[in-house]
């Protein structure tokens, strides 16, 4: 920037800028009620549906529903309306609680109610999750292949997976078992 004529005293080197709303503290119980989620039940959140993360996985609800533990799952589909419709239909027949959401301006709230996030390896989402100290499982894009990006997580290791969905089920189990809202522990 200095080479373009910007004065050096006006240049700050920073990380990825995130919205200040990701730095706030939220009333988790109030948000659980707002979204119809049960307090004290581990909550998983899947993001990246608008970018093809879940396009190749037509049985995401079924896979998560197979987990033999009490949990609830939020799936954010973004602008992917066919995915939203398909998963909404699948969720009607599920034994676990699923909240299927399209595009939202309130990811900070959804991250505040989540215990584990499954997402693509995007820089902004990763920075936001780190800001709210949300453990992550990074899942490579299924349709639109991108270069794998290195990442770190504040509380749990980020776990990359290949194209098969089954390893995600085992990873959820391992992380949810260590989650602070495991059965018997009050939020």
Structural commentary:
The chain has one domain (27-177): Glycogen Phosphorylase B (Rossmann fold, 3-Layer(aba) Sandwich). The protein is elongated and about 60 Å long. Helix content is 29%, strand content 11%. It contains 6 helices and 5 strands; from the N terminus they run H-E-H-E-H-E-H-E-H-E-H. It has 187 residues and is of the alpha/beta class. Strands 3-2-1-4-5 form a 5-stranded parallel beta sheet, with helices on both faces.
Describe this protein with a few key phrases.
6 helices, Rossmann fold, alpha/beta, elongated, 29% helix, 187 residues, 5 strands
Write the layout of secondary structure elements.
Elements: H1 28-34, E1 43-46, H2 60-65, E2 72-76, H3 81-92, E3 97-101, H4 107-113, E4 116-119, H5 123-131, E5 136-138, H6 166-178
Helix pairs in contact: 1-4
CATH architect. name: 3-Layer(aba) Sandwich
- The portion of residues forming beta strands comes to 5-15%
The CATH class designation is Alpha Beta
Largest sheet: 5 strands, parallel
Number of helices: 6
Overall structural domain count? 1
Mean pLDDT: 76
The coarse overall form would be elongated
Structural class: alpha/beta
> What is the CATH topology descriptor?
Rossmann fold
């Amino acid at each position: 920037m200095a080479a373009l004529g910007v004065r050096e005293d006006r240049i700050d080197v920073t990380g990825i800028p995130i919205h200040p709303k990701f730095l706030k503290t939220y009333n988790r119980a109030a948000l659980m009620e707002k979204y119809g989620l049960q307090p004290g039940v581990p909550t998983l959140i899947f993001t990246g549906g608008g970018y093809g993360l879940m396009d190749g996985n037509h049985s995401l609800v079924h896979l998560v529903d197979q987990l033999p533990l009490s949990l609830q799952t939020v799936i954010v589909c973004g602008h992917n309306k066919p995915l939203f419709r398909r998963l909404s239909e699948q969720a009607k027949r599920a034994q676990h609680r699923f909240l299927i959401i399209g595009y939202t301006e309130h990811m900070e709230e959804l991250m505040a109610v989540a215990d584990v996030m499954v997402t693509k390896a995007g820089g902004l989402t990763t920075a936001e999750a780190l800001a709210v100290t949300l453990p992550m499982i990074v899942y490579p894009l299924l349709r639109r292949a991108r270069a794998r990006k290195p990442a770190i997580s504040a509380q749990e290791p980020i776990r990359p997976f290949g194209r098969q969905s089954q390893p995600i089920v085992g990873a959820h189990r391992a992380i949810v078992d260590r989650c602070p809202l495991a059965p018997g522990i009050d939020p």
